[in-house]
Amino acid sequence: MESKSATLSLSALGHEGRLAIFRLLVSAGPTGLAAGEIARQLGMVPNSLSANLNILSRANLTTSHRDGRSIIYQADFSTMTALVGFLVGDCCGGAPEICAPLNQLLSQAQQCAPTPSRQKELC
Amino acid sequence: MESKSATLSLSALGHEGRLAIFRLLVSAGPTGLAAGEIARQLGMVPNSLSANLNILSRANLTTSHRDGRSIIYQADFSTMTALVGFLVGDCCGGAPEICAPLNQLLSQAQQCAPTPSRQKELC
DNA sequence: TCCATAGTTCTGAGATAATAGAATTATGTG
DNA sequence: CACATAATTCTATTATCTCAGAACTATGGA
Q: Nearest-CA distance from A69 to chain B in Å?
């Protein structure tokens, strides 16, 4: 991940409503949630929610697909992981023995990436 | 960390210049860097840099202290860690066996928190 | 086809943030 | 004290974001 896309993701998350949406999707896991369900749980007006989902999506933080009349949104775990990795990159001024576990953790968390076939077995 | 302060930190980092500053400070480690040194390395005008350092500071992402004519800025590793923890909290819809390593990593990275006495030995 | 449901897009007013020039404060040195 | 250096604060212009009302598109069922 480079600076531009990291900035895009971070500023997308730098908004209370969008952060709440993203965290809700993260906790919902790979199954995701319909837009209406998100609106209900967070008490958001449909058009605001839609605009904010669009911003999260342009920042590659969510994916979506239509299911009948609903549109299902999911957190994009691979972007999330890449973002965290970018943020803490070169942590502690090149003392890898301290932050190595972080990198290891991040590489393991990569398995949470929303590849449909792997999601059910892993998550 | 709650939503409000996480949002503050994320929107502070959602700006290309500030993200560059923060990452430079993260890679500089607990020693930190003088404002002028940051300006030189990133090619920023002093007043813009100052404004952005102020925003990072209000978001608890940096600490600073005066050293002669210079002011030394450091990344606040404890906020960074808390922020990452908040972001990936409840990852994968309650399948802790997948994301447990992440939590472990984050708790280990806590040791990078800028407690001056521990910084030298740990980082 | 007609209607209800689910979401999205359009729009404009108000608020907030970014930028850089100029002036100001604080520190150290001759 | 006078001067240079290091950073910050002030200021005004410009650009961007936010929000909700209203209209629009897409899907499924009677």
A: 24
Q: Is residue A17 classed exposed, middle or buried when 0-12, 13-18 and 19+ CB atoms within 10 A define those classes?
A: middle
The answer to whether strand C lies under 7 Å from the CB of residue A54 is: yes
Residue A61: phi, psi to the nearest 5?
-95, -15
Side-by-side strand order, sheet with A62-67: A33-34, A70-75, A62-67
- What is the spatial distance, in angstroms and rounded to an integer, between the CA atom of A51 and the C1' atom of C11? 14
Q: What φ, ψ does residue A64 adopt, rounded to 5°?
A: -155, 160
Give per-residue pLDDT as tens, B59-83: 999 999 999 999 999 999 888 878 8
Please name every residue paired with A66 in a beta bridge, in sequence order, or none if there are none.
A71
* Residue A71 φ then ψ, to 5°: -120, 125
